[in-house]
Amino acid sequence: IFGFNKMFMYSKSCTLAVAVFTAVLGSLQYGYSLGVINAPQKVIEKNYGRSLGVWSEKADVLSENSTEEEEFSEAGQHPDVIMYWSLSVAIFSIGGMLSSFLVGFVGDLRGRVKGMLMVNVLAVAAGLLMGLCMMWKPHIMVISGRAVMGFYCGLTSGLVPMYIGEIAPKAYRGALGTLHQLAIVIGILISQVIGLDFILGNDDMWPLLLGLSGAPAVLQSFLLPLCPESPRYLYILQGKEQEARKSKNYTQQLSMSSFFCKPYIYSIYIRSSVYRQQLIVALMMHLSQQLSGINGIFYYSTAIFARAGVAQPVYATIGVGVINTIFTMVSVALVDKAGRRTLTLVGLGGMCCCAIAMTVGLKFQSDYSWMSYVSMSAIFLFVSFFEIGPGPIPWFIVAELFSQGPRPAAIALAGCCNWTSNFIIGMTFQYIQTWLDCYVFILFAVLLLGFTVFTYLRVPETKGKTFEEIAAVFHKGRKKSAQSPKAAELQQLKTSTDA
């Protein structure tokens, strides 16, 4: 009997490991798509210039000849190229913003597993559009591919944390939830390394570099049929109690008391006082992630390192990617021990101090040569503190703050908030940097201080708690005669014609 139990537990662990690994392949693809566009920027701009007829190889030769001049010696200086390049970068976030509202619909339509399988068609189509871009107009093909890939990533950035949160055992919910962010930063690092000019980031191979964005979706499509469906989805939306129990045996011991309602439409949650506090916390957690200034580092780290006096800034940027990965692993190890709230507070507070140090370093590096080391150290520490808490935790804490009914809608709203703020920072950072110059990170230091105070006052610890226990924390201050969150949710279901 002991041997049978041991084999059964091993089988459950293996199934859970396969399910989580398969799910985070979508996160890896998201990270790769985030980072892949930056390394080959100059090469892509040249190809855009050739396709648009505004730049030629002759211009490149003339730019190296100090005795001859031409108005646009570099392809990236032409207004048309600048417009199409900016659109290539920004369209990814626009696609994510549009699709993030569909996360709940796709996840509930056929289930979490089949939902991830369906949306992989988008990733493969996007990879083909970019990989075959030289067969037609590369600027049109790349922009189209980036738009489709952004649409895919908006869906997967919600579906992956939702699925992992629903199959993860309570004791490991934080560590497994953090794997979503770990896969993202690994994807960014891979794109940075193979995007070097002597690998794929050159004039001949850059379409393949972009086309590989769809590769993880192919592998995931083969593995998803081996993964169990979310027991919560099977029980609540499908009424398949036996299948839910079978799926549960392969993943975790679920509390069936949390299976009590169906998803609402978004407007009900926005109006409902039952979930208002949780929703505010969820949105603020995602805002703190994107408005921390981290994307300014990710998008423009090479330029920042060059300004700090680094001879080979592209390798320093890869160093940021390595630090990213290492400290996300640290978060995986600590999140179920130290707790979500503690790591978020440490991360936000540390980033605030680093933003101030970065400002001091950039301000005085022309006066003191050693100040460049202050700037670089501050950048590395800034990224480290981000990945300890503010980076990974917002992605999965939303699934912990809400019970099964409102969870898809809450994840969709939080995801839309994340993508929208990501887009705003990506589009405005350069202008803010021009306006504030070396003081640009003081703005983010002020925001980080505000988010730190909010987290200290309003964000509860969710480590080791059931969904009912977490909900009780938010409703602790209410009158004893008031309905419980569970009863209130059921009452709204009974009275709502939309439920």
Automatic annotation (TrEMBL):
Q: Which residues cross the membrane?
A: 82-105, 117-137, 143-164, 176-200, 279-302, 314-335, 342-364, 370-388, 409-432, 438-457
Q: Which residue numbers delimit the Major facilitator superfamily (MFS) profile domain?
A: 19-463
- Keyword flag Membrane: yes
Q: Which GO terms describe its cellular component?
A: brush border; sarcolemma
- Check the record and name the SUPFAM superfamilies matching this protein: MFS general substrate transporter
InterPro entries per record: GLUT, MFS_dom, MFS_sugar_transport-like, MFS_trans_sf, Sugar/inositol_transpt, Sugar_transporter_CS
Query: Where does the record say this protein resides?
Result: Cell membrane, Sarcolemma; Cell membrane
Which NCBIfam families does the UniProt entry name for this protein?
Answer: SP
Protein name per Swiss-Prot or TrEMBL? Solute carrier family 2, facilitated glucose transporter member 5
Any one Gene Ontology MF annotation carried by this entry is:
D-glucose transmembrane transporter activity
**Highest lineage ranks of the organism?**
Eukaryota, Metazoa, Chordata, Craniata, Vertebrata
The GO biological-process annotations, alphabetized, read as: D-glucose import; dehydroascorbic acid transport; fructose import across plasma membrane
Q: Which UniProt keywords apply?
A: Cell membrane, Membrane, Sugar transport, Transmembrane, Transmembrane helix, Transport
Q: Which family does it belong to?
A: Belongs to the major facilitator superfamily. Sugar transporter (TC 2.A.1.1) family. Glucose transporter subfamily.
Catalytic reactions of this protein:
D-fructose(out) = D-fructose(in)
PANTHER family, alphabetized: SOLUTE CARRIER FAMILY 2, SOLUTE CARRIER FAMILY 2, FACILITATED GLUCOSE TRANSPORTER MEMBER 2
Q: Which organism is it from?
A: Dicentrarchus labrax
Has keyword Transit peptide?
A: no
Provide the membrane topology annotation. Answer: Multi-pass membrane protein
| Region (Disordered), start-end ranges | 478-499
